[in-house]
């Protein structure tokens, strides 16, 4: 099976960093994955890239040679890419049976259709910088574009609030300043306090409970907050947007930070689950039947006799297993193991 994660989101939301974090994590856990860059506007890549659209066309070259701006340049790159689609097909052909992370630009719909035709199981990840939650309007626009990606792509989809370590640090900083205010009274026991602080920090690392309301946002509340701080003339429009989001009721977020291995593992697990990764893998048999029987092969026996001998070998193993479970069963004669009838 072939698997691909399509990583999308606004500029600077952390797509490249996500791919790097996943690549590093998979290297550590000895899992074979590849990262592909399909963004012609990418600068320096922070991960080891398996293939890169900039080998075909890059935004800088287009801007220089055709004197196009960033948007026009990107459209040209995508059109050029479409005209040379066999380049992509050849490149991706080298990664049959692999798990790909694809760092995507805007026009992702294009890639989805191609990869689907090539038999990839895919999921899309929409990344939203957690700074968006600080401003109700920005957060609503983030939710709206994530909803639009979900509806357009029609793929198993996960939304991530990225860089949550930044919000956590703020909480920690506040906590530290509170602690230092109380410090004057309890200076004597500093070593003990330092230890306590370290433990608290470790615990605090994954305490994201203060962000719960953003992971599964209450749209009515959000709209009310936005309306409270904007002009009355926008009320109806904001409410209509809120109604639209609520009518689909599909957008929720999971936390992500490149700095927390638990969060990386958690997201990878979600993606594996929604792509049914490894579903077609064969279970590993603790007993190597093939080698066991081929090692014991006796050249002097004909095929029937050899097959009977193999069955006897398996019967011995089963007998041993049953005996070690406390069951003393006669595996020979009429109650013996019958390889042709697994129910026997
Ligand atoms: N603190 C923190 N910073 C992060 C994290 N992920 C990304 N960043 C920073 O956010 C900035 C943007 O990250 P990128 O990975 O380049 O984002 P991008 O979406 O690939 O950006 P474009 O390719 O320009 O669209 C970089 O300075 C990263 O170091 C994170 O989990 N925590």
TrEMBL record:
Q: Which SUPFAM superfamilies match?
A: P-loop containing nucleoside triphosphate hydrolases
Q: Which PANTHER family match?
A: GPN-LOOP GTPASE 3, XPA-BINDING PROTEIN 1-RELATED
Task: Report residue spans for region: Disordered.
Answer: 172-203, 281-314, 325-344
Q: What is this protein called?
A: GPN-loop GTPase 3
Q: Which InterPro entries match?
A: Gpn, Gpn3, P-loop_NTPase
Keywords for this protein: GTP-binding, Hydrolase, Nucleotide-binding
Q: How does it assemble?
A: Binds to RNA polymerase II (RNAPII).
Q: Where is the composition biased (Basic and acidic residues)?
A: 172-194
The record's similarity note reads: Belongs to the GPN-loop GTPase family.
Function, in words: Small GTPase required for proper nuclear import of RNA polymerase II and III (RNAPII and RNAPIII). May act at an RNAP assembly step prior to nuclear import.
The record's listing under Pfam families reads: ATP_bind_1
Which Gene3D superfamilies does the entry link to? P-loop containing nucleotide triphosphate hydrolases
* A GO molecular-function descriptor: GTP binding
Its source organism is: Reticulomyxa filosa
């Amino acid at each position: 099976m072939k698997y691909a994660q399509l990583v999308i989101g606004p500029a600077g939301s952390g797509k490249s960093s996500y791919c790097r974090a996943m690549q590093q994590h998979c290297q550590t856990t000895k899992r074979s994955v590849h990262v592909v860059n399909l963004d012609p506007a990418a600068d320096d890549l922070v991960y080891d890239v398996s293939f890169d659209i900039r080998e075909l066309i890059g935004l800088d070259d287009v801007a220089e040679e055709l004197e196009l701006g960033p948007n026009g340049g990107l459209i040209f790159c995508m059109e050029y890419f479409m005209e040379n689609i066999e380049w992509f097909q050849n490149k991706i052909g080298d990664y049959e049976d692999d798990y790909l992370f694809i760092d995507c630009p805007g026009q992702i719909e294009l890639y989805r259709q191609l990869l689907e035709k090539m038999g990839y199981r895919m999921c899309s990840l929409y990344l939203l910088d957690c700074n968006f939650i600080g401003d109700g309007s920005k957060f609503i626009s983030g939710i709206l574009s994530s909803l639009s990606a979900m509806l357009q792509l029609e793929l198993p989809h996960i939304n991530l609030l990225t860089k949550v370590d930044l919000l956590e640090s703020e909480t920690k900083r506040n906590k530290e300043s509170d602690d230092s205010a109380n410090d004057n009274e309890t200076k004597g026991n500093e070593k003990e306090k330092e230890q306590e602080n370290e433990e608290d920090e470790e615990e605090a690392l994954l305490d994201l409970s203060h962000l719960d309301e953003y992971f599964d946002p209450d749209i009515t509340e959000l709209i009310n907050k936005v309306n409270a701080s904007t002009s009355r003339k926008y009320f109806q429009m904001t409410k209509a947007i809120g109604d639209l989001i609520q009518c689909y009721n599909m957008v929720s977020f999971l936390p992500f930070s490149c700095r927390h291995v638990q969060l990386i593992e958690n997201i990878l697990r979600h993606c594996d689950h929604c792509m049914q990764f490894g579903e077609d893998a064969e279970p590993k048999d603790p007993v190597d039947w093939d080698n066991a029987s081929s090692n014991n092969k006796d050249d002097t026996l004909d095929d029937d006799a050899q097959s009977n001998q193999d069955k006897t070998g398996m019967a011995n193993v089963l007998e041993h297993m049953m005996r070690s479970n406390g069951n003393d069963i006669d595996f020979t004669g009429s109650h013996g193991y019958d390889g042709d009838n697994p129910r026997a």
